[in-house]
Automatic annotation (TrEMBL), chain A:
PROSITE patterns, per the entry: ABC_TM1 (PS50928)
A GO cellular-component term linked to this record: plasma membrane
Stretches assigned to the ABC transmembrane type-1 domain: 76-283
Keywords tagged on the record: Cell membrane, Membrane, Transmembrane, Transmembrane helix, Transport
Topology within the bilayer: Multi-pass membrane protein
Organism: Cohnella fermenti
InterPro entries registered for this protein in UniProt: MetI-like, MetI-like_sf
GO biological process: transmembrane transport
Family the entry assigns: Belongs to the binding-protein-dependent transport system permease family.
Name this polypeptide is given: Carbohydrate ABC transporter permease
A matching Pfam family: BPD_transp_1
CDD domains: TM_PBP2
Automatic annotation (TrEMBL), chain B:
Protein name (database record): DUF3502 domain-containing protein
Compositional bias ranges of the Basic residues kind: 1-13
Domain spans labelled DUF3502: 451-518
Coiled-coil segments on the chain, per record: none
Alphabetized InterPro entries for the sequence: Bact_solute-bd_prot1 (IPR050490), DUF3502 (IPR022627)
Region of interest called Disordered, as start-end residue ranges on this chain: 1-24
Amino acid sequence: MAVRSKRKIAVGEWVVHAYLAVVSLLFILPLWAVISISISDEVDITKYGFSLIPRNLDFTSYRYIFESPATILNAYKVTIIVSGAALVLYLLVSSMAAYALSRSNFKYGKAISFYLFFTMLFNGGLVPYYILMNQYLHLRNSYLALILPLIGNVWYIFIMRTNFRQIPDAIVESAKIDGAGELQIYYKIILPLSKPVLATVGLLQLLANWNAWFQAMLFIDKSELYPLQYLLQTILRNAQELSRGFENSMVSFTASQPLPTESMRMAMAVIATGPMLLIFPFFQKYFVKGLTVGSVKG
Amino acid sequence: MRTSKSKTSKPRTSKPGTSKQTMGAILAGTMLGAALLAGCQNKNDGASAPSSSDSASGSAAATASAGSAADLPEVELVWYLRGSKPKNADSVIARANEITREKIHATVDYRFVEPGDYDQKMQLIMGAGEPFDLVWTSSWSNNYVANATKGAYLALDDYLDAVPKLKESMPDKIWNGVKVNGSIYGVNNYQILGGPHGMSFRKDIVEKYNIDLDSIKSVKDLTPIFEQVKAGEPDMVMVKYGVPALLPYGESGVPPKVEDFIVDTNTWQVGSYLYADDSMVEGYKLMREWYQKGFFPKNVATAAEADQSLEQAGKLFAQFEVAKPGAEEELALKYGYDVVVKPLTDPLFITKAALTSTLNAVSRTSANPERALMFLELINTDKELYNTLVFGLEGQDYTMTGDNRIEKIPDTYQFDAWELGNQFNAYFNGTQPDSVWEDTKAINDAAEVDPMLDFSADLTPIQNELTQIKAAQKEFYVILKNGLADPEEAMKNFENKLAQSGEEKVRTELQKQIDAWRSTVK
């Protein structure tokens, strides 16, 4: 009996494993395809189409990109500064807000929660946003134009609030008795106790920061301030745009800038996503924990 | 310990005010912090912005004293251009600003917007009512007619009398052609307007296989040639993407059309949608045959048409081109090998789309429209300014090789000549023949004018339908023109989609407007 049931489980496990293997393949294959194309010979791509195993290894794309790495490196610098600064600021701002909101004796907690929640559902729209940033705050072409919009994410404030509420009041009270002020409690007690949720929120927010490009499109004209993702975006979109209007326009337009080849675009994608892929495993232990700590326990 | 904690927890409730205040303070602090940061940056921004333009214009200050327009107060104009910022742009712009400062007492802040973002960004800038002076606009990006209709651009008719040299720099048919609802809203960047469509072929291959290009009368005649070359050069791609329009255009000419709806200019009836017209379907069938015979690259469905890796690798035999004067020399420069260009259609007549394919407009929000016009006059008539902005600085970006001829230094400053002004003021580049501008002007003068030229449709009542039709076109045309699917089948779906998109409503509305226009003409 025991043996049989073990076997049953084994079969069940096989099914689950097979299923998970297929699912992970679905995730891995596109990534692999990107890498494979990036090291393929460009002529092979046009002649035979994409393939998962490069016919001829060819690192021209990478060589080309790193030949004049200034643009990419500068974009990296911008992205790192922006994602880093926005991450620190965001964690500070949102955890402070969340802590204040988590305290049951905060009189306007409900009203402010609602106010914050409201912004998740409704916003002023693109043009007012643009006017505010450009004409009132005069943030065009500044790092702040890239950073500020990233610290406006309300959703994680609520997740953190829920998390902070699970910290027993008694701990806060005891700290108070020991003479700690509110800021000290927040800094010395609440934050250390909330590492998993901070790490989780931090990672998710870092990913979002890393991938953010929209505000760069809106507020940045100077190429020195292009973040990585936006740089890639422009390179790819410019290629598409240049081809638009070629055939059907009555006049002829010759592009004055060379276009990136297919493998070069993929190489850029690899370069842009690489660091995030490396960072993720370090956060993973907190990540799993953090996902559960925010939830209600029985 | 434990008991003492729970006991002394009571005082907290006795003075709740302090903790509440602190809570509030934390929250307020976070918000204030953001505001303060914003304030700081504000200052930084203000301080850093002039420094970059200062370095550009500082050197010019010395030479600026004795200009003809010196009595005018100096202004800075803002010009939005579609294109990435070129290399060496700062030094080139500094030189351009020296010229403009001397001649019209103005400098220009050249704002380069990435082509992919241009439409959206300009919509925002104009929607926000931001002050700026000049903007590049066209029929195919940052739509000229739509923006003019919306009132984003200034009507230039009254201002043009003050800049006679600009007015005289191009023929009247151009000024008439760019009118929207009776007013001129943009200054055309004068370049080739007609010119037949055709194909270019690699010269060495043509010679190797002894191909008689004169025997090609229609794009259909290319099929056996491609078969022959393909058999001999299995490594080569015959043609980069489908060119179905060459067949109907070659047989019966380009039809007059409005918003891609064909108009019969004898009866003034709005006919079928161009991309779903029967004549076009013949072209699609030919492209299907080409696809099945493997003339296209394998990634034709996804490849960017402007991607030039095939040319760079020397693996492309034929390519769609506008067969304009000097095309062979220009293309040899672009591709790095000699080509022969064969026209496959008659010279096209001058359409509204061609006339509005590249213009510069003055914004409604401009504080100095007169000066903006003076600048447009300058860039369209002053060879030095125009060539500086197109080719850069002598020695740094190009070398003079003749009286009016330059050789570009590779990988230096270069901006799209067709965006800046009158292209006939450009230096001859490399091996361009001396006659290229004369020949082009001759084509322009000889070209017939589109009978629909004076008609400009008001698209507001059919905006939604047109958007949907364009989306359908975008979806199906790439399949149809590259022969990726059976044309009969795809056409059926395409026509259904068009019908659902409100094709009939658009046709009725356009017919109504054309009828109204015809009645005013008589």
